[in-house]
Amino acid sequence: MTVEGMVFKIKKYALHDGPGIRTTVFFKGCPLRCWWCHNPEGQRFEPEPMALTIGGNDDAPAPEMVGRRWTVPVLAAEIEKDRLFYDESGGGVTFSGGEPLAQPEFLDALLEECRRREIHTAVDTSGYAPPEIVRSVLGKADLMLYDLKLMDDARHRQYTGVGNRQILENLEMLDGLGTKIVIRLPLVPGINDDQSQIRRMAEFVGGLENVQRIDLLPFHPVADGKYRRLKMANRMAGVKSPTRGDIEKLGASFAAAGLAVRYGG
Ligand code: SF4
After folding, report:
1. Of 61, 99, 165, 190, which residue is 20 to 30 A from 83 by alpha carbon distance?
2. Strands ordered across the beta sheet of 181-187
3. What pLDDT digit, counting tens, does each position of 85-122 carry?
4. Ordered structural domains, the chain, with CATH
5. Residue 211 forms beta bridges with which residues?
6. Residue range 44-53: average pLDDT?
7. 42 alpha carbon to ligand 1 midpoint, in Å?
8. Is 92 in the pocket of ligand 1 (CB under 6 A)?
């Protein structure tokens, strides 16, 4: 049986989604609803219309449909097209989203196919999935880009729609399996940028064995237009990015825990 999956974007020449020059494949569908999500078109699992302009009128062009189904061989052939760039830069493919773990068979088959083709793979995930899926699928990835958001379970639930217990347990399990991990932390003003959250996270991450680095990703108000084109509420409307000084101050807590810190992806 041919395995198929839903993808909403394929980005070529990506420089911030893992080492080297990469192709990033964005899976469509995510079980979380983070207030700061930059990719709201990746949240729903089905294709959906997205207006081409904001506040359309009768003359507005027809909306584009976001999301289409891909088979593994067709998508692998698309990824393969940029092999020269991967080979020259130490790059590869990154499966992101949305949430790639929410389409485990598709992800699994793609990881297998890329391994067969000797293409480096990274998976960018929220880690919110049953542990058996994490164990079976992610052991096949060369690198995990693991997003952490908040250490406090109640606040995690408030701002993402789900608790964080499973996410933290899965991360500990992956670490125990020896998977190479880069932690990605979106820094969102007023939500997770207070020192007590950051200190708890630094302590937790600093206790893991296989974390290579933590990337601090400042919130940017870039997605407002997309929310409007999708007719979705943007809960972060009007919130500004943290300053470089704010970010560096928070980064110091991670450096003090012995972690390599990178600002930006
Ligand atoms: S986990 Fe990522 S894709 Fe899913 S809602 Fe949160 S930010 Fe968006």
Report:
1. 99
2. 68-71, 4-14, 22-27, 92-97, 121-125, 143-147, 181-187, 211-218, 261-263
3. 999 999 999 999 999 999 999 999 999 999 999 999 99
4. 4-263 (3.20.20.70)
5. 181
6. 93
7. 8
8. no
Is the CB of 145 within 6 Å of ligand 1? Answer: no
Select from 32, 103, 162, 235 the residue to mutate for testing ligand 1; criterion: most ligand atoms less than 8 Å from CB. 32
CA of 21 to the centre of ligand 1 (A): 23
Q: pLDDT tens-digit profile of 172-215?
A: 999 999 999 999 999 999 999 999 999 999 999 999 999 999 99
Q: What's the pLDDT tens digit per position in 125-144?
A: 999 999 999 998 877 999 99
Q: Residue 146 to residues 66, 90, 101, 141, 252: CA-CA distances in angstroms?
A: 25, 20, 12, 12, 20
Annotate 212-233 with three-state secondary structure: EEEEEEECCCCCHHHHHHCCCC
Residue 231 burial class via C-beta count within 10 angstroms: exposed 0-12, middle 13-18, buried 19 and up: exposed
Rounded-to-integer distance, Cα 216 and Cα 98, Å: 19
Pair of tokens at residue 31 = 């079980």
Q: Is pLDDT above 70 for 56?
A: no
Sort residue 114 into left (φ over 0), alpha (ψ -120 to 50) or beta: alpha
The protein residue whose alpha carbon is closest to atom 6 in ligand 1 is 34
Q: How confident is the model at residue 265 (pLDDT cuts 50, 70, 90)?
A: low
